[in-house]
Design goal:
The complex is a heterodimer. Chain A is mainly alpha-helical. Chain A is built from 14 helices and no strands. Classes of the chains: A mainly alpha, B alpha/beta. Bound molecules: adenosine-5'-diphosphate (ADP) and magnesium ion.
Chain lengths: 251, 310
């Protein structure tokens, strides 16, 4: 356990040793802040029932920075160690393979949370400045950020998987971006084929992050997406673990 | 300390290490010697539990490298070839991280860090980024990392490769100082290094162990049937050559004349220096050289590793 904590600290520290982390943090704040402001602007004067938090999380504009962060956060995890060869001193220290995989995953998750934490401030500032609440109920905040967390756990595990496959960071980034887009934009299928049969529609709905986002930001909790994301995450991490082991064993 | 049995490693169809077998006792410094591609690194990677063997077993300090891998690793300090290091950390950060990772108790990390820094001369650069260090320093960081948890066994893969002669000497001295506390297995393709630091040499070629012996024994093995250089000035060179040839145990004789002097290269079964001297005194030849050519490891090495190519 102590070794896992040592590894985890190192992983988080690694993020802050790299300029990329600061660039991502900065750009992410700018973009989300801008989107927040746009959302507020659009609602201003409109008579709709939409709340600020819905306008923010259910916005098409948010998709792009949201998806792009995952490859950026995870592409380095294994690929860089393969490339530099530092995997060798790492794996000849008395640490298990599982501890290494999990420390990388949780390190990325920690950075992901750090990335999103400041956005909570937007709502606080909005409340302080306008005196109005951004949501109708607390469950909207909770739902939005819970989903963000759940989706994050899964997409980060996809990034881990992609990075464990190759020593080339760019390839890892492209693979994880492609996989995540596939998941994320599944629901587009129902727009393109609106007449598709109900079963397919249900399946797509069940897997579609966009649909989940819409529900959760309205404060509607569905246990199915929660189970879905957690089980997919476990499965992907399991795959990552095996690929990581196999890579070394096969070579 | 190390016990290797029928260890084999195949990469696809390439057999990098083929059924090797050896033992290393406590306190030995064993030099693993072989040309590039002989399988040194592969063997060391298996011993340090990085690569699983295709077949065969090895034990480190009584722990099987495959079944008791984590235990075995606690007893090993391993420095990989080319010393891969993370670029983003400072030397002290890295060494402390490695110490914690290898299970050095928190309260001892400071002390261990100070010890290895002093031993490896890293004190000046301990706040520098590893990415900014020169090759020599990186090598020392690798060595410090290998030693930080006070392992009984050090496995060093080409510890002096890519260093300048001064740095090589420093690393060599360092390794020699380590022999008091550690068993060491180091690989190299530089022979003089083995002669200077090791108590035993294992020569490996094409994945097989060819020889395992002390450097002295190896040398004397070839020196017995050694060569003698003999340079004389005789009034009648042809007669002199005939007289030398008539000595017992001579296998072959090459001569080379330059004006007054004749230089003989004599191959014999035994050490003939005394007989040659007596002969020269009897015949009143002038002598300016009489030496036994001591076989260097280079020759032994060349002999062993080229045998199969021909
Ligand atoms: N990862 C690998 N994949 C395939 N072949 C390898 C790999 N590593 C080493 N080899 C092959 O194994 C043989 C032994 O290599 P190595 O152990 O690195 O030799 P040395 O360290 O003595 O120079 C070489 O023929 C090399 O090409
Ligand atoms: Mg090598």
């Amino acid at each position: 356990m102590r070794r896992f904590v040592t590894l985890l600290k190192r992983e988080i520290q690694h993020y802050f040793h790299q300029p990329l982390a600061y660039i991502v943090l900065f750009c992410f704040l700018c973009i989300t802040g801008f989107i927040f402001q746009l959302g507020v602007g659009a609602l201003n004067g409109a008579t709709s029932q939409t709340t600020v938090i819905e306008a923010f999380f259910d916005s098409i504009l948010l998709w792009f920075p949201f998806i792009v962060t995952f490859p950026l956060l995870t592409m380095r995890l294994f690929s860089e160690e393969y490339k530099l060869g530092t995997i060798e001193p790492l794996m000849t220290a008395p640490v298990g393979d599982l501890a290494v995989v999990l420390s990388k995953y949780f390190g990325a998750l920690a950075f992901y949370l750090i990335l999103w934490a400041p956005t909570l401030l937007y709502f606080v500032i909005f409340h302080v400045v306008t005196g109005q609440s951004s949501a109708q109920s607390f469950s909207q905040y909770f739902g939005s950020y819970l989903l963000l967390f759940l989706v994050g756990t899964f997409y980060l595990s996809i990034g881990c998987l992609a990075s464990s496959l190759t020593s080339n960071q760019i390839v890892a980034a492209i693979v994880s971006f492609a996989l995540i887009c596939l998941m994320f934009f599944l629901s587009v299928v129902t727009f393109v084929f609106p007449s598709a049969d109900r079963f397919l529609g249900d399946v797509v709905y069940y897997f579609s992050t966009i649909e989940h986002m819409a529900d959760f930001s309205q404060g509607v909790f569905d246990t199915r997406p929660i189970v879905l994301y957690l089980s997919l995450t476990l499965f992907t991490l399991f795959l990552t673990f095996h690929i990581f082991q196999h890579r070394r064993w096969r070579s | 300390m190390i016990k290797v049995q029928n260890l084999t490693k195949r990469y696809g169809s390439v057999t990098a290490v083929n059924e090797i077998q050896f033992e290393v006792g406590k306190g030995e410094i064993v030099g693993f010697l072989g040309p590039n591609g002989a399988g040194k690194s592969t063997t060391m990677r298996m011993l340090s539990c990085y690569l699983p063997p295709t077949s065969g077993t090895a034990e480190i300090a009584g722990y099987d490298i495959f079944r008791d891998s984590l235990r075995a690793r606690e007893h090993i300090g391993y420095m990989p070839e080319n010393v891969p290091l993370p670029q983003d950390m400072r030397v002290d950060e890295y060494l402390r991280f490695r110490a914690a990772l290898k299970g050095v108790p928190g309260r001892r990390i400071k002390e261990r860090f100070a010890d290895v820094c002093e031993l490896c001369n890293l004190t000046d650069v301990s706040r520098k980024l590893i990415g900014a260090l020169s090759k020599g320093y990186r090598q020392r960081v690798g060595l410090a990392d290998a030693m930080i948890h006070e392992p009984e066994l050090l496995i060093l893969d080409e510890p002096t490769i890519g260093l300048d002669p001064n740095q090589i000497r420093q690393v060599r001295d360092l390794i020699r100082n380590l022999r008091r506390h550690h068993t060491i297995l180091l690989s190299t393709h530089i022979l003089s290094e083995v002669e200077m630091t090791c108590t035993r040499v294992i020569i490996i070629n094409k994945g097989r162990i060819e020889v395992s012996d002390t450097p002295e024994n190896l040398r004397s093995r070839l020196t017995k049937e050694g060569e003698i250089l003999f340079e004389v000035s005789a009034p009648d060179p042809a007669a002199a050559t005939a007289k030398i040839k008539a000595l017992p145990h001579i296998k072959s004789l090459n001569s080379h004349r330059t004006q007054d002097w004749t230089r003989y290269l004599i191959q014999a079964d035994e050490d003939l220096r005394e007989e040659l001297h007596n002969l020269a005194v009897r015949e009143k030849w002038r002598v300016r050289e009489l030496t036994q050519r001591v076989a260097t490891l280079e020759q032994i090495f060349a002999e062993i590793t080229h045998k199969e190519d021909i």
